[in-house]
């Protein structure tokens, strides 16, 4: 038996040797270039495209049986314009299936310098529709013939490896008005066969024009192909991405996980985790029927690093007035179709800080909403929603913000948002705002809606109303950052139209005054025009001194006007009754001055206590388009 096996092996080896020698002689004598014109004509008949073969066609026997083709190109349908081209291609064939079963098995493909442009028209048709349809029909016919056993030889793909060097693929998506360039594409894969585990390495430069982004991608992954379901499953994926934009945004990501691609349903599903810059990220995503589904969890995120440098928040010097107008372009979100959730442990946005952020996203049909949008921030919590509507004008979407903030420290919030603290205190703020525009100033000038606040134990910055009422006669001046009015309670509601907030029910209480008022604040140009009525509240037993006792019940009008940074004030003594005016003009009783100084000192101590929660940090602009006054 062993002798027979030995004889069979020797015979098989001799046969292979003889056939190999014969193939070598055939390769030496056979000139495939003589068939160029026939190949070109065959392609024209089958595809109505023009194939140009500029290089020579060569047969090779060692180290693999194969065909080598030099420069070649394929035209668009109809023969005009170049669809694809390459510098060279090499196909290798498995020898044993060819000899024993008359099967042409392509086991290695090498492509160098391949270039192709895929175009999707506005109606959804593509310039490769004819090729994919022809391939589908050809595949059906080949399968039928193969089952019937017809034909001298069958072609079967069982690729042992693919190598692509320096390819350039361009996707001109005219339906989405976007161009994607994949340049310097290099691929090196293992076996590509049904149900066979394999690995692939890929690197490429991927550029997108809208928004203008470029990504350097390097990844390795295991994968398997299911020919029956037309699915590719990638496992143990290890990807590195370096992203940059014309606006100066730079980001780096290192992710691991898995991806499954379903070519039949044109769907992608992924589960990834890793690092994006300084953030630890984990998430799941899917793309089906053009709808992106995302569920993302991030430990901490600083939005400033992902804003264009020209519009990124920066330091704001004191009393410099409104910040310069900045353009805002959100048009890239107009075509977004997505849904999902976002969890962020710690978020910084335009200087504002929040924790435990939870957001639910829905974007489709030119409308994007984030609802609910909740977080804990500045000692309290907030819940609300944010929406963008691009249906009328993608360059100037309508925006709406609803927020209900409870128990927040307003002074710290305003300082982080604008670098200024015109008002401090802890309490509730409710916002229902809408606007539209393509720049920060346009957004502020178009701002409308309502706002309400109710605070306690705070300070109004820029003016000391108690001092004005106690000391002033018919006086006027300009407020300063060194002055303030402490209050125990403050409330107001505002109606906002054209960027101007108007209130008729301002109310505040201080140890010496009951304050009411009305007026308006121009949020776009940061000016104020208001009139306050300050009523002196005499303390029991005259503890605030003879001066305060003598003014008990007196109401003094105070007008405020001008820029918020240098607010002008005027005490309108002329508006008082004769008796009240006489009280204001009367000399201060003996000893009242000292008691008044003591009271002023106490007021300043109160103000200092409330202001201790302010955080000393760089002043920054507001990421939401400068909606907070500066």
Which structural traits does this protein have?
elongated, disordered N terminus, 31-stranded mixed β-sheet, 19% helix, 630 residues, disordered C terminus, alpha+beta
Notes on the protein architecture:
The radius of gyration is 38 Å and the shape is elongated. It has a domain at 302-611. Helix content is 19%, strand content 48%. With 630 residues, the chain is an alpha+beta fold. The protein starts with a helix and ends in a 19-residue tail after the last helix. The relative contact order is 0.06. It has a 31-stranded mixed beta sheet that branches. It is built from 10 helices and 31 strands.
Would you summarize the structure shown here?
This protein has ten helices and 31 strands. The chain is of the alpha+beta class. InterPro entries: AsmA, AsmA-related.
Provide mean pLDDT, rounded: 80
Shape: elongated
Radius of gyration from the alpha-carbon trace, in angstroms: 38 Å
Structural class: alpha+beta
Sheet with the most strands, sense and barrel status:
31 strands, mixed
Number of helices: 10
Record the SSE blueprint.
Blueprint: H1 2-29, H2 36-47, E1 51-53, E2 57-60, E3 65-69, E4 72-75, E5 82-86, E6 88-93, H3 95-100, E7 103-112, E8 115-120, H4 129-148, E9 154-173, E10 178-189, E11 198-208, E12 213-226, E13 231-245, E14 250-262, E15 267-276, E16 279-288, E17 291-302, E18 338-349, E19 352-364, E20 367-377, E21 380-389, E22 398-409, H5 410-418, E23 426-436, H6 440-445, E24 448-461, H7 465-471, E25 476-478, E26 484-497, E27 500-509, E28 513-522, E29 527-536, H8 545-550, E30 555-563, E31 568-571, H9 578-585, H10 592-611
Parallel strand pairs: 7-9, 8-9, 17-18
Antiparallel strand pairs: 1-4, 2-3, 3-6, 4-5, 5-8, 6-7, 9-10, 10-11, 11-12, 12-13, 13-14, 14-15, 15-16, 16-17, 18-19, 19-20, 20-21, 21-22, 22-23, 23-24, 24-26, 25-31, 26-27, 27-28, 28-29, 29-30, 30-31
């Amino acid at each position: 038996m062993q002798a027979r096996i030995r004889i069979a092996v020797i015979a098989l080896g001799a046969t292979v040797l003889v056939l190999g020698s014969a193939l070598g002689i055939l390769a030496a004598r056979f000139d495939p270039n003589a068939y160029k014109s026939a190949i070109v004509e065959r392609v024209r008949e089958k595809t109505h495209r023009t194939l140009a073969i500029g290089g020579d066609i060569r047969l090779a026997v060692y180290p693999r049986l194969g065909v080598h083709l030099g420069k070649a190109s394929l035209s668009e349908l109809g023969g005009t314009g170049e669809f694809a081209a390459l510098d060279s291609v090499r196909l290798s064939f498995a020898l044993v299936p060819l000899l024993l079963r008359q099967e042409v098995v392509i086991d290695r493909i090498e492509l160098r310098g391949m270039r192709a442009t895929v175009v999707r028209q506005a109606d959804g048709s593509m310039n490769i529709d004819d090729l994919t349809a022809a391939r589908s029909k050809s595949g059906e016919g080949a399968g039928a013939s193969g089952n019937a056993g017809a034909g001298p030889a069958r072609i079967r793909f069982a690729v042992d490896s693919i190598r692509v060097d320096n390819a350039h693929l361009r996707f001109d998506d005219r339906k989405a008005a976007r161009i994607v360039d994949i340049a310097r594409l290099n691929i090196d894969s293992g076996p590509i066969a049904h149900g066979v585990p394999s690995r692939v390495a890929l690197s490429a430069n991927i550029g997108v024009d809208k928004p203008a982004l470029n990504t350097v991608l390097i990844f390795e992954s295991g994968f398997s192909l299911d020919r029956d379901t037309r699915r590719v499953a990638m496992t143990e994926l290890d990807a590195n991405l370096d992203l940059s934009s014309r606006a100066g945004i730079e980001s780096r990501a290192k992710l691991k996980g898995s991806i499954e691609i379903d070519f039949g349903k044109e769907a992608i599903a992924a589960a990834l985790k890793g690092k994006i810059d300084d953030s630890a990220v984990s998430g799941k995503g899917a793309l089906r029927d053009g709808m992106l589904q995302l569920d993302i969890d991030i430990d901490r995120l600083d939005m400033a690093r992902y804003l264009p440098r020209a519009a990124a928040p920066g330091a704001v010097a004191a009393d410099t007035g409104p910040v310069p107008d900045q353009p805002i372009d959100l048009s890239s979100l107009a075509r977004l179709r997505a849904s999902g959730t976002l969890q962020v442990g710690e978020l910084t946005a335009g200087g504002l800080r929040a924790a435990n952020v939870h957001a639910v996203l829905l974007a489709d049909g030119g409308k994007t909403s984030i609802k609910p949008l909740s977080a804990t921030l500045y000692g309290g919590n907030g819940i609300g929603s944010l929406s963008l509507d691009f249906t009328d004008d993608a360059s100037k979407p309508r925006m709406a913000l609803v927020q209900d903030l409870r128990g927040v420290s307003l002074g710290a919030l305003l300082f982080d948002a604008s670098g200024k603290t015109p008002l401090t205190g802890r309490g509730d703020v409710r916002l229902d705002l809408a606007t539209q525009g393509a720049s920060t100033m346009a957004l502020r000038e178009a701002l409308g809606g309502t706002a309400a606040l109710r605070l306690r134990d705070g300070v109004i910055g820029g003016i000391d109303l108690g001092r004005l009422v106690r000391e002033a006669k018919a006086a006027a001046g300009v407020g300063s950052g060194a002055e303030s009015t402490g209050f125990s309670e403050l409330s107001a509601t505002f109606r906002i139209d054209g960027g101007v907030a108007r209130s008729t029910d301002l109310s505040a209480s201080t140890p010496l005054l009951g304050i009411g008022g009305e007026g308006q604040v121009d949020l776009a140009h940061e000016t104020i025009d208001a009139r306050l009525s300050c009523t002196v509240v005499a303390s029991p037993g005259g503890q605030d001194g003879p001066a305060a006792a003598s003014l008990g019940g007196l109401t003094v009008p105070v007008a405020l006007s001008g820029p918020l940074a240098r607010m002008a004030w005027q005490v309108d003594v002329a508006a008082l009754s004769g008796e009240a005016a006489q009280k204001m003009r009367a000399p201060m009783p003996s000893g009242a001055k000292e008691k008044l100084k003591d009271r002023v000192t106490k007021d300043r101590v109160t103000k200092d206590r409330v202001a201790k929660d302010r955080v000393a940090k760089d002043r920054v602009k507001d990421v939401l388009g400068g909606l907070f006054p500066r």
